[in-house]
Amino acid sequence: MFSHVMVGSNDIHASQAFYDATLGALGAGAGRSDPMGRIFYINDGGLFMVTMPIDGAPACHANGGTIGFRAASQAAADAWHAAGLANGGTECEDPPGVREGAFGKLYLAYLRDPAGNKLCAMYRVPA
Fold it and tell me: In degrees, to the nearest 5, what angle opens at C-alpha 67 toward C-alphas 53 and 51?
């Protein structure tokens, strides 16, 4: 459904350290930069990018927006969360844990990245 997700950053180095750690905990390799200074992560056919805003205005996060990353297990979601906290991320929402709803049981872990973007690592708990 999606070709890519891109978020803005006012500090590309802090964002790369954060995403290298958090996405690395989910199995992605370190980010690679292009000549424009954007950072790219490729994993399981998905493309995630971080950039300084092209228009020169400050980056800001989406109010109400969340970017979800698939985790292979509860342990992977916890490792993602811990890596994020250790690399400039901040807690938001409830602590990592199982939530039950219309889509069954989901193990969810939430963070905000150094630029304030709301992120989630999600593991679908088998029925």
Answer: 20
**pLDDT-derived band at 43, boundaries 50, 70, 90:** confident
Three-point CA angle 43, 17, 53, nearest 5°: 85
- Residue 82's domain comprises 5-54+61-124
- Domain of 83: which CATH number? 3.10.180.10
> What does the block give as tokens for 102?
């219309």
Phi/psi at 84 (5° precision): -65, -45
Q: In which region does residue 22 sit, left (phi positive, over 0), alpha (psi from -120 to 50) or beta (all else)? A: alpha
51: phi then psi, degrees, rounded to nearest 5: -145, 150
pLDDT per position as a tens digit, 14-36: 999 999 999 999 999 999 999 99
What mean pLDDT, rounded, does the chain reach?
Answer: 93
Query: What are the structure tokens assigned to 36, written together?
Result: 């424009």
Number of independent structural domains in the chain: 1
Is pLDDT above 70 for 1? Answer: no
